[in-house]
């Protein structure tokens, strides 16, 4: 269940680790490892297939207008603001355990910026591990204080 929760786009490690430790009574290390594995499961297919899916959708007028707008907007805003940071910025973006940050959004950002698969995967994986460590530490800390 922890792997499934971690693989979902909304919950990711932010939801999986508290459930694993608090509800299922897992040890923090076990919860961390399962959540990281689960969160990384969709990363490979997302990084590999976002391009072909967008190419297919661009064959249609509405899809082409949407992706043209999205690419122009994202590249202009993100590259101008974070051009010097590159993969480190992607890693830190994924590492922040807040809503709308995480592996799923990191894959979208990597795709929009045209990052190479392995570079993007490693940056996202590092970000997921950092986020999972932050969430695990927070859950263990709350448990220590509360109980």
Please describe the structure with a list of short key phrases separated by commas or semicolons.
single chain; 147 residues; mainly alpha; 8 helices; 0% strand; elongated
Short characterization:
The protein is mostly helical.
Write the layout of secondary structure elements.
Layout: H1 2-7, H2 12-23, H3 28-40, H4 43-57, H5 61-82, H6 87-95, H7 103-113, H8 117-146
Helix pairs in contact: 2-3, 2-8, 3-8, 4-7, 4-8, 6-7, 6-8, 7-8
CA-CA gap between termini: 25 Å
Mean pLDDT: 89
Class inferred from helices and paired strands: mainly alpha
Counting DSSP H or I runs of 4 or more residues, the number of helices is: 8
Helix content: over 70%
Count of separate structural domains: 1
Q: Major sheet, described briefly?
A: none
The best one-word shape is elongated
Percent of residues in beta strands? under 5%
What is the CA-based Rg, rounded?
A: 17 Å
Q: How many DSSP E strands?
A: 0
Low-pLDDT windows of residues: none
Order of helices and strands: HHHHHHHH
What does this structure look like?
By secondary structure, the protein is mainly alpha-helical. It has one domain (2-146). The protein is built from 8 helices and no strands. The chain has helices at 2-7, 12-23, 28-40, 43-57, 61-82, 87-95, 103-113, 117-146. The protein is elongated and about 55 Å long. The model has no long low-confidence stretch (mean pLDDT 89).
